[in-house]
Amino acid sequence: MIGKFEEEPPLGTKSSAHGDTPSNLLDYVSNLTITEGGNRPDQEVKVSVIGGGDLGIAAVLSIMAKSCVDKLVLIDIPENSTKGGTMDLEIFSLPKVEVSKDLSASAGSKVLVITANAWSDEQSYLSVVQTNVDMYRGIIPRLAQLSPNAVLVIASQPVDVMTHVAWRQSHLLPTQVIGVGCNLDSQRLSHIINISLVANNTGKQAWVIGELSENKVAVWGNMGPGTDQLQALTPVSNSTKPLMDRAFEMIKGRGQRSWSVGLSIADITHSIVTNQKKVHSVTTLAEGWGGIGSKVFLSLPCILGETGSTRLPGVALGSEDEMKLRESVACQVNLFMQLRL
């Protein structure tokens, strides 16, 4: 996890200088019209995105295109290191979108999306995380106080660690605090398997679980959107491993640009605000899953609805995949011993 992060920070957190400009993102994402299942909420739905920059803008526009949102607030906090974009939204004002620098504008939100990062490329991994922890200390408790029934969706990096930090600092239920985790990778993997490799829908969903790093692993599950029944997960068998390995190779190098992460955030947000009961692989408290005994956060398949997440039961993994999860757990435990929360 540390080596990969220092070698190449997540693309979704980079500012406009590294690629797509806010104007390009506005042009691309604002033309999307995405509809999906779920129930139209009876009450007014308010969603707040905290953090400017390309990822914040992409999240705002993707949520507005996909979800049943009556009001969306974008809050650009001073500590955020990825600047830009919010001025464009102020100039080219969009219906239902409010731009603010005041956390109190988020009061009464159904979903709070955190995209802010407060680090630079020159920092070490530990310094990167500590800087973000310090920034979270100034915003998370206040956000939770203003919207105590909200679901927090964390997109700050490293997402597994920052979701844990947000849970600790917010004092909310663990089911109310999730991270974007491996949702994007899971959707990509299943798409490749069912469309590109098999050429027809297998009726199975491939889930990417674990840490958002080289240690992530895959499991199988039966498709079941729109139902609150728990799905049975199964490990990758020897017969299906070549298929899974090939699919993993095909998604390597696709990266997590701001617009793709923004679409993933919108996918998660939509399931929450419409109480869709759809399964996503999101960052959640992993304690007790598959014998994990520590309070760590990893991506696991969860049913998402208006009250937050419901984790699917654990599954016995193969020795290689089990070792990857255990390594991720040990790494997080060691990191938290060094952090000042």
Labels describing this entry:
341 residues, alpha/beta, six-stranded parallel beta sheet, three-stranded antiparallel beta sheet, 10 helices, globular
Describe this structure in words.
Helix 2 (22-29) packs parallel to helix 3 (53-66), helix 3 packs across helix 9 and helix 7 crosses helix 8. This protein is globular. The protein is of the alpha/beta class and 341 residues long. The two termini are 20 Å apart. Helix content is 38%, strand content 18%. It has 10 helices and 12 strands.
Order of helices and strands: HHEHEHEEHEHEHEEEHHEEEH
- Mean pLDDT, all residues: 84
* Uncertain spans: 15-19, 28-35
Largest sheet: 6 strands, parallel
Total helix count?
Answer: 10
What distance lies between the first and last C-alpha atoms, to the nearest angstrom?
A: 20 Å
Approximately how much beta-strand content do the residues carry?
15-25%
Q: From the helix content, strand content and strand pairing, which structural class follows?
A: alpha/beta
The backbone outline, from C-alpha atoms, is: globular
Protein name: Ubiquitin-conjugating enzyme E2 variant 3 isoform X2
